[in-house]
Amino acid sequence: MSKNDKEIIDSYIEAYNSFDIEGMLALLHEEVLFRNYSNGEVSTETKGIHEFKELAENSAQIFSSRCQTITSYSQIDGKVEIQIDYEAVLAADLPNGLKQGDRIQLKGKSIFEIREGKITLIEDYS
Fold first, then answer.
1. Who wins on pLDDT, 73 or 39?
2. Which segments cross the bilayer (predicted)?
């Protein structure tokens, strides 16, 4: 993993944690592919920066705070995998029964692919 790839990922996580959507988008390739996996199934997928922006704006409304902490980095098949500790506080009630003010804590991983200095793939697993 190059120092530059690590800096791009660190910058993305920092922007995510501070709800800086424009900062996140600045690091993404125009054709970025995003997938969120929950319990082994794809729960969300976006293709392209415009769909990602819409998802990011909607997601930002759900949380009053959120923090991803990177616990490790590894290089696998040209991609960078990070292990994360995730903590968030809900700003709204969710259909699954979670309520505003509830705290979510989980461990997961994210896989990033970076080409030409831009993130082309993000896969989140929880």
1. 73
2. none
Closest CA to 55 of 78, 82, 25: 25
Cβ atoms of residues 84 and 71 within 8 Å: yes
Domains in the chain with CATH codes? 3-125 (3.10.450.50)
Neighbours of 52 (CB within 10 A): 20
Q: What pTM, to 2 d.p., does this model score?
A: 0.92
Q: Locate 46 and state its tokens.
A: 């976006």
Q: Taking residues 74-91, report their average pLDDT.
A: 95
Q: Would you give the distance in Å from CA 11 to the centre of its chain?
A: 12
Q: Would you state the pLDDT for residue 39?
A: 84
